[in-house]
Amino acid sequence: MIPKPLAARTASAAAASLLALLMLVACDDDPVEVVEPPDPDPQVTESFSGTVEQLGLSIHLFTIGGLNNTEVEITELAPLETLTLGLGVGTSTDGGETCALLAQDRSVRLGETLLIQNLAEGEYCVTVFDVGNIFPDQVVEYTIEVLHP
């Protein structure tokens, strides 16, 4: 027996595969439904607003539902949008009166994000604080968003 050239064998195999696929499609009247697997750690966005005075701070509590990264972003700042503030994430054992920081950034501006990696499920606090940039008798209004599992 004389073997067929490689091109002929490849063409024959491709034709057989195409014929099998056409027969399968012709026999199946139901459309194929593609189901996306659920996101194992859906992200939640929480928004907090408040005020900070000179050398002051403000604390907000939130709960993480699973191990993942957490991001805190300043989304609104008034009256001076170019002001630099401090952001921190930590734990509070007294209902939000204090916040023992696990991570902080002392130079965050409007639109910038503080990223904290691998926080476990549990109760946390986020702190917005003055790093010496707010004038006496001035009150800064802010809104932050916390993205977490």
- Taking the alpha carbons of the first and last residues, their distance comes to 66 Å
What is the count of structural domains? Answer: 1
**CATH architecture heading:** Sandwich
Order of helices and strands: HEEEEEEEE
Shape: globular
Features:
Jelly Rolls, four-stranded antiparallel β-sheet, 47% strand, globular
Short description:
Helices cover 15% and strands 47% of the residues.
Give an overview of the whole structure.
The longest helix has 22 residues, at 6-27. The strands form two sheets. The chain has a four-stranded antiparallel sheet, with no helix packed on it. The protein is 15% helix and 47% strand. The protein has one helix spanning 6-27; strands at residues 44-53, 57-64, 68-78, 85-91, 100-108, 113-119, 122-129, 139-148. The chain has 149 residues and is mainly β. It is globular, with a radius of gyration of 28 Å. It contains one helix and eight strands. It has one domain (44-148): Jelly Rolls (Sandwich), CATH 2.60.120.
Lay out the secondary structure.
Blueprint: H1 6-27, E1 44-53, E2 57-64, E3 68-78, E4 85-91, E5 100-108, E6 113-119, E7 122-129, E8 139-148
Antiparallel strand pairs: 1-8, 2-7, 3-6, 3-8, 4-5, 4-7
